[in-house]
């Protein structure tokens, strides 16, 4: 067994102090070996800031995220000995449950300094906060400006449809036969479909019409989705859209009956810069469909 005591690698070069929610941390001024515990917010933020990632955990990187081919996916939940063997000089980890197996932030601090993300913050806030700790604010600002320009272009093309269309972003659980709606205000925090929709100025299903985690039972489809004009349907690759297509209550919905459903491949419920761009394109496709 490897002893998880002291930092495994201090790296070369200088150090800097970062004032974080975890306290004042001593971190490398130019990290050389970064581990991202979350393949979504942590990994995407690291890549957007051009950090040298040597491994990531949780789940496979999404196809739209430009992970270098040589960067491995690590064990999930995180294996601390495996991470120690990589000799990271910086670790990125959500602060969701710091003593859990999936997000073991408290134990990771024995290996290397840990910078946290928070799923109750927007992706922009998480990226800007990380960039501030690492003195990479100009790079983050360029990323944010590029995304803002994309959003402005979509609003310019589809402003009328955005204003006139009530939408829902959802995925279907084929085992429990229920929809999970990615609206703002659920217990899941800042879900990416809702964040990007808010940037566009779109109109979504209110969280007050949903279960705590955005869930909608099959028998409530008519009540919740009856006034929805168009649907962004997330396809996790688990057969959800195919199972949903066989449900009579789904087929009766006006948006479905009129062909105003845009399927987007992949789990894009959480993420950062790259998922935001991916979803912006998906929302644009839905609004174009709704206006046709």
Automatic annotation (TrEMBL):
InterPro entries: ABC_transptr_periplasmic_BD, Bact_iron-sidero_bind
GO cellular component: outer membrane-bounded periplasmic space
Domain of life: Bacteria
Keywords: Ion transport, Iron, Iron transport, Signal, Transport
Residue ranges constituting the Fe/B12 periplasmic-binding domain according to the UniProt record: 32-292
Location in or out of the cell: Cell envelope
Pfam family, one: Peripla_BP_2
Record keyword Transport present: yes
GO biological process, one term: iron coordination entity transport
Family stated for the protein in its record: Belongs to the bacterial solute-binding protein 8 family.
Alphabetical list of PANTHER family matching this protein: IRON III DICITRATE-BINDING PERIPLASMIC PROTEIN, IRON(3+)-HYDROXAMATE-BINDING PROTEIN FHUD
Protein name: Iron ABC transporter permease
Organism the protein comes from: Ancylobacter defluvii
Gene from which the chain derives: fecC_1
């Amino acid at each position: 067994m490897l002893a998880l005591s002291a930092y495994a690698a201090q790296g070369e070069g200088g150090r800097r102090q970062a004032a974080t929610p975890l306290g004042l941390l001593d971190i490398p001024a130019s990290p050389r070996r970064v581990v991202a515990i979350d393949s979504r917010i942590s990994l995407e933020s690291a890549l957007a800031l051009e950090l040298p990632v040597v491994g990531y955990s949780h789940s496979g990187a999404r196809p739209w995220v430009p992970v270098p081919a040589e960067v491995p996916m690590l064990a999930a939940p995180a294996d601390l000995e495996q991470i120690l063997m990589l000799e990271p000089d910086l670790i990125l980890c959500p602060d969701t449950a710091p003593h859990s197996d999936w997000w073991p932030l408290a134990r990771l601090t024995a290996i290397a300094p840990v910078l946290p993300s928070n799923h109750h913050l927007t992706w922009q806030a998480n990226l800007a906060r990380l960039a501030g700790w690492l003195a990479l604010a100009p790079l983050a600002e360029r990323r944010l400006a590029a995304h803002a320009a994309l959003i402005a272009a979509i609003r310019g093309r589809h402003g009328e449809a955005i204003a006139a269309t009530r939408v829902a972003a959802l995925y279907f659980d084929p085992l429990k036969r229920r929809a999970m709606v990615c609206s703002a205000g659920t217990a899941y925090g800042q879900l990416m479909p809702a964040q990007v929709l808010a940037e566009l100025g779109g109109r979504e299903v209110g969280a007050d019409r949903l279960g705590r985690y955005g869930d909608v039972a099959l028998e409530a489809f008519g009540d919740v989705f009856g006034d929805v004009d168009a649907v962004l349907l997330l396809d996790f690759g688990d057969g959800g859209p195919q199972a949903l297509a066989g449900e009579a209550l789904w087929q009766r919905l006006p948006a479905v009956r009129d062909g105003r459903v845009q399927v987007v491949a992949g789990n894009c419920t959480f993420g950062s810069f790259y998922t935001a761009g991916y979803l912006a394109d998906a929302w644009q496709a839905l609004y174009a469909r709704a206006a046709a």
